[in-house]
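Below is one such protein, fold included:
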Amino acid sequence: MTSTASRPAETDDTWLPEPPVLRSPWHTPERAALMEQARRFAMDEVLPVANELDPQKGEIPQRLLERLGELGWFGVTVPAADGGLGLGVFEYCMVSEELARAWMSVASILARSQGMGTAVADPDRRRELLRRSAGGSWIGAVALSEPEAGSDLANVQTRAVRDGDEWVVTGHKRWCGNAKAADFIQVLVRVADPQPGESRSRGLRNLLLVKERGSFPPGLSGYAIDKVGYHGFLTWDLTFDGVRIPAADLIVGPGEGGGSDSSGDSGAGFREAQAFLNTARVHTAARAVGLARAAVEDCVLYLQERAQFGHPIGDFQALRFTLADMAAQVEQARAFYRQVAHLLDEGVPCEKEAAMVKLQATEMAVRVTNQAMQLHGGNGYTTERQVERHWRDARLTTIFEGTSEIQKRIISNTMLPRSPLG
């Protein structure tokens, strides 16, 4: 259990928000130290940058990216032998909650590393890319969605055709965060069409488009989508017009080669995307908890600061009880994401649980940040307060990495068979 406030010092009558602590069964001294380090970094270095740049729709500055690399957080889940911290999804989500409490985009940029874009066939090159990923010099973007393939990833139509030792890619991708600033873009493409009776996901593969930061290679163009929130990095609509990718830059699965017979694949790209999404959904739950926690902590302070009818509004029972409900919801979601992160680290199949925690935590974050704006009254509906940023960013969490409706579909499909009439 975690209280939301600590008693004031004798010289100050303000109760300060008390952040969560790591308790049994999850506590270890190493985890507690990592959480405290992430918390100090988030509040001392990330939050001031967020408060300055988010209203300008500014991007995460290079120096902040360098600091994340110095701390090793681009490689939380990368093996220590490859330059990473060698930790698990639990620690990855724990750090991300702390960062999201300050600016969700900084927690999100970590997902563009963690060994992503390194699963090439050549083992020496793979090790080199893993080291770069862990150090923050191999930060990528993922191009999955298309105008007609968002929730329905099996409908991807972007086409890759072999031409000698290269793939030639043509198509349209949307919602590709960090695309221009990235060192690479991992692109889900169709290399073959399914035959009658085969899964629609057959013939989907992931290609690795290596590029220079801050530019697009020949044949690739795009524009930045103007978003309501989730600032810090740009999200792109991309057009591939004959983009050439070396044949060796094919993302492969365990034990799989990268030879020319890859076009006959049975849907490895779709499976890779689904495996990626399980971890991404728990990571999203942790980010949502960070946002909701930020809203609760801001309210603890505001309810003492704002006075009406001769009292701080925190004296009024209705508002106190609202705050209690908000805090309880955040605690519940945190306990759930920690449990599912632990399952992933144990190698337990948990597609249903990942969907459940993503659904529960993100919908909670929308409710809690919305209620926090209400508690702030008119002040909450201004850019003078951080709570409006938490609210804008929380609203996106129910949409990306699979909408709430898709999570309900995944969950219900594990619980109920389809009837013959369906």
User: Anything to note?
Assistant: The chain has a mean pLDDT of 92.
